[in-house]
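TL;DR need structure tokens for one chain.
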Amino acid sequence: MSATFRYDRPKSLEIVKSPKLSVAVIIACRDGQSKLDLLLASLSVQSYPQRLISVYVVDDGSTKKLKLPAIKPTKSKLIYFKNTDHSWGKTQAVNHVIKSIKQDLIWCIDADMVLHPDHLAQMMKWHHESQDYLVLGWKRFVAQWPYSPQQLVRELNSGNFHKLHPTSEGKESWESLITATNNLQDVTLESFRGLVGATFSIYRKNWVTLGGYNPLFKTGEDTELGWRVLMAGMRMVPEEKAHSWHLGISTVDQNTNTVITHNQPLFANYIPALTYLRNKSDLQWQVPENEVLIDCRRMSFETFKQVINQFLIGGQSQFKLLGDWKRLNRRYNVINDGDKEIRAISRFVRSDARFMLENLTGQQTLSIHEILELIQSTSIPYLYYAEGNPDQQIFYKALKRKINKSKNGLEGLVDTVDQRAFILYTPALNRARSTPGECYQNLQDQWGICWAEVGTFDFTKKLSFTNIFPMLALGVRGIAKIRRPRQVTKLIKRTFLVLRNSRSY
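>> reply
TL;DR here they are.
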């Protein structure tokens, strides 16, 4: 992976003349034989070498079993995925197939697409440039498609892809996000929405590292995967030259309220950026907003409570506490207990599942490299560290505001006795770890690191434009979806929820 700064990438790339990477095309399909036939016909005339393309059509319990048509890529295979009450749907069907393939790249496509002959070649130019890209194709929606597979192949071979449909519709909410983020280069926590599952490609090894689709999701699986892609520090690239037609209007757009109601509970659990879904709830979510690593070895019980209370009030956090916890199993004198502070800490949190104790012996000060090794990179966006008895004026959410504004990978504080407190941005840490070289140096080179003395740091509460962005993006997307007057009221309420949550950052 090339060591670029944050999400920088080439402005454009040319199609690779002598490509070498193999591609597994994954098409999960339930019924819809006629649309599948058109998709396979368009795949048969892709300009990317057919010898490097293997197509896997997964029949996910169709009413009438699907068949491979006469017009299809040379290496095409039909797999009947056995449905049960515990194993069914696109996510599990796709995961099942990918487990057994060996190609370099995975290209997931919806079964109701017609592709430009250069569609795959335009996507693959990015993968030949770097291994950390997830590339998104560009699609337009059409209401009618008056052609057969044979006619389609003739038109595509004649260079008439764009003449197939004089009238089409775009996805306004998605395109507005792409525009607002400079084609997903100016990344915020909202950028996970950029991953749309209709056509995207990714290195197979990255898919495996990410864990594939979350099988709990029957719709919205691409959105949740987008969150993990963002947290992994990968670069998402919308390739507007990878043209395609989507046959029919989006199912989500046709059943917006039903799909949203179905998805929101799981989204609330797995995507911390959707704070409006977690508002006014004390539930413990599957993926919290913060992970807090606290070195308790020289920390007083009172200081410990002051630190954790900042994270327990508003937002969601989980904690990893470092200390010589095994030492507490020894016999001790209640009156002259040399371990009374750390013993009080362990007893205070013993019944709360959000706190995990990790044994650490000795009293030596941890180096920054040792601390980074102890911090687990997950889908949690913000990672904190505190040690000793931090200055009481430290307001940890101010560090979050600072890192959101600066877009650095680490924002840290040092007090007069060299005690450290800092915040890490998970995408930055994961990107630094996945690049050859030393992690801390990569973090500095790729994202930026800023340390400040506690006395010089501004802890006052301010609402930055970075915090307002989710509200603005939400508003743009919401306006595009308004079809009835009552939707205006819902949009206003939802927007103010996002604004209120932004203030807490």
